[in-house]
């Protein structure tokens, strides 16, 4: 049984980060909404209560009965989690005089307290709260302060319960990982045995049990998530898995052929479907970005459905959904925020059960699992690429001729990034074909041709992004190559917008 830490999410933006930090310690953890504590099969070693956008005395504050948890598990409350435990036990939480936000330093660390093992006086921490604990209840002891916060951390005497008002999960808290390790390993006794290899072993066994001899279909996109999901399932159920890779005609240059070849080398049972004519005819004359997305999404479902029906007795649809796609983050209004899905509606329409073997992994863990499964590095480190492909990078109407121009320009840019050792330094890159023609001169001839924009960004999760500071020499070379080699393009620009307020894609 895989031991774990349970993180209860009270709606903080950094809850996922707590999960990542714990996993980085090779300790397995799961995040649950604050009021949905899971059934314990004997694997839960400790509980972390996250921060929250609410104040504990707010009418709408998320509250739970702590007794069933505190009598059974070690608990670490972070920010709101700490304030809530103190408040529920009769302590005082009040608005902080000045908002306690930003860097601070630990002082007065209680010697011998296991939560601060190996953490020195003066260690930098990150504060971010509008409230502060002004009085702790009987039985609680203060174990650290900062220059402006008296009760930065406390311990409940005789119990395995701790609270910290700062955020150990954020990068700016220098010894944050050490603190989380002190809790998870030192206090909860976790063994740090969570690894890609152990994940593969347990998941393959679970999949075999869950799927038995059932047939499964999976849509491949060329991206890392669906590819890793496919290889994992292939290891579990072999030829009972059929993968379908649809070419909508708007993939990168030679991508369909190359990726199909990679998949075949991995031993996957894969059907490649060239449906480009269907998509081009449905997209003819369409310029509105959302309509393009809808047409492609629906077309994809049609093609996939048709192919899947050719396979007899399929019972499951597998998808490469990953953890950040499915964590139910609680927004201030309590509504559920979910990421977009290209194939929303597919499971319902096909009347299949859903199998998502990566649903508990973060992106970097998916990559580690892929490596452990022996997948080639270029599949694993591949940049994200939108489901609708180049369709959202051709502004205005899509034609095969425009796709061809863009594929050539994009290929020069991406190959250049690889040659110059820059590919892995950016999160994502591509070229956008603008609906603009401009005057140029080539030899003695006046030209009136298309303009393209290069886009390259750095990011950690695509929620925010900054334009990549690519070297001028590199940009000069790429621009020169595109203008000289791609017929129909006479101008290259570089997009220097960050997200927000721009987005990564132009449509
Ligand atoms: P934006 O443009 O919103 O993109 O900053 C954020 C990330 O999402 C990708 N993206 C998509 N992926 N289907 C997808 O599968 C889509 O419709 C879609 N739109 C944007 C984008 O490439 C970036 O990685």
TrEMBL record:
HAMAP family assigned to the protein according to its UniProt record, in alphabetical order: GMP_synthase
Functional note: Catalyzes the synthesis of GMP from XMP.
Entry EC no(s): 6.3.5.2
Protein's name according to its UniProt entry: GMP synthase [glutamine-hydrolyzing]
Quaternary structure (record): Homodimer.
Domain GMPS ATP-PPase: start-end pairs: 194-382
A Pfam entry, by short name: NAD_synthase
Domain of life: Bacteria
Active site: 79 (nucleophile), 167, 169
Keywords noted in UniProt: ATP-binding, Glutamine amidotransferase, GMP biosynthesis, Ligase, Nucleotide-binding, Purine biosynthesis
Primary gene name: guaA
Binding residue positions for ATP: 221-227
Database matches in SUPFAM superfamilies: Adenine nucleotide alpha hydrolases-like (SSF52402), Class I glutamine amidotransferase-like (SSF52317), GMP synthetase C-terminal dimerisation domain (SSF54810)
Organism annotation: Candidatus Avibacteroides avistercoris
Xref: PROSITE patterns: GATASE_TYPE_1 (PS51273), GMPS_ATP_PPASE (PS51553)
Catalyzed reaction equations: XMP + L-glutamine + ATP + H2O = GMP + L-glutamate + AMP + diphosphate + 2 H(+)
Biological or metabolic pathway of the protein: Purine metabolism; GMP biosynthesis; GMP from XMP (L-Gln route): step 1/1
GO CC, any one term: cytosol
Molecular function GO labels: ATP binding; GMP synthase activity
Keyword flag Calcium: no
